[in-house]
Amino acid sequence: MFQKLFKFIIGLIFCFMLVSPTADAQEYGTIQALATVVTSLSVIGSTNLQFGAVTPGINKSVDKSSVGTAGEWTITGVANAEVTLDMTLPDSLVTLDSLAFLRISFSSTDASYDDGTGGGQTAPAGVIDPSNFSTLRLGAGATLVVWIGGTVLPSISQTGGDYSSDVVLTVAYTGN
Fold first, then answer.
1. Exposed, middle or buried: residue 3 (CB in 10 Å: 0-12, 13-18, 19+)?
2. Cα distance between residue 102 and residue 53, in whole Å
């Protein structure tokens, strides 16, 4: 008898489970995922770092404020955006046939920049170390101009000819 009662109760519970109402009414909300992709950076090398005629055994420098001979890049992007600057500097200039090398050096004050708050190349907004990573902001006009000078160190027996090497400025947004 107990077994019959137990089976009956279990059957009843099972029936209630099958016929119990389900929760058909559901509410939901929707949002959108949004993003604004900022304008790409543009980095243009506008003036080469030009040492001109160099005499063997006599070092020759070009100052970052020397208009027309200091190296110059113009960076454009989003106004007031934070960017990082990283320069890849050569340790030598090389002849076209790669047989002769002319040492070049850069001091910690051989680069400067203007974000529109300074007075241009001869009175820039600030000085940066070209050998170290820098974080700056593009100006309100969405530009930043960077200049670089340096010194070549010819040996007394320096081979005559034309020498060159790349000076690379890499610029990236930081997201700030």
1. exposed
2. 13
Sheet arrangement for strand 168-173: 134-137, 82-88, 168-173
Q: How far apart are CA 57 and CA 174, in angstroms?
A: 43
Q: What is the DSSP letter of 130?
A: T
For residue 106, give the nearest of 169, 158, 155, 43 by alpha carbon: 169
What does pTM read for this prediction? 0.81
The 10s digit of each residue's pLDDT in 143-176 is 999 999 999 999 999 999 999 999 999 999 998 8
SS3 30: coil
Distance spanning both ends of the chain, measured CA to CA: 79
Domain ranges of the chain: 47-173
Q: Residue 2, Cα to own-chain centre: how many angstroms?
A: 82
Residues 87/167, Cβ–Cβ less than 8 Å = yes
Whether domain 47-173 has CATH 2.60.40: the reply is yes
- The answer to whether 139 and 115 are in contact (CB under 8 A) is yes
